[in-house]
Amino acid sequence: MNVTPIEMINNSIKLAELKLNQHKVQGVKSTLDVFQVAQLMDTIKYGEFVKRPQNSSIFYNISSN
């Protein structure tokens, strides 16, 4: 079974959402620190940005001609 990069990104976003929800439920008893929570939030926030194709490559302009 081959996993595509998009599926890997989707899985990491879903896992980050799950961990943040658990953190919210546990409240003060959560084992996550501020930096881990921030990293999970960044994963969710920027995951959609990463899924979009990046056309900033030098070779993109050459091949589109």
Explain this structure.
The chain has a domain at 9-51. It has helices at residues 5-26, 34-51, 58-63. α1 packs antiparallel against α2. 71% of the residues lie in helices and 0% in strands. It is mainly alpha-helical. It starts with a helix and ends with a helix.
Which descriptors would you attach to this protein?
single chain; 65 residues
What's the quick description here?
The chain has 3 helices and no strands. It is mainly alpha-helical and 65 residues long. It has a domain at 9-51.
Shape: elongated
Percent range for helical residues?
over 70%
Largest beta-sheet characterization: none
Mean pLDDT across every amino acid position = 81
Distance from N terminus to C terminus (CA atoms, Å) equals 35 Å
User: Which spans have pLDDT < 50 for at least 5 consecutive residues?
Assistant: none
Strand percentage lies at under 5%
Q: What is the CA-based Rg, rounded?
A: 17 Å
Give a count of the beta strands, DSSP E runs of length 2 or more.
0
Give me the strand/helix succession. Answer: HHH
Going by helix content, strand content and strand pairing, the class is mainly alpha
Helix run count: 3
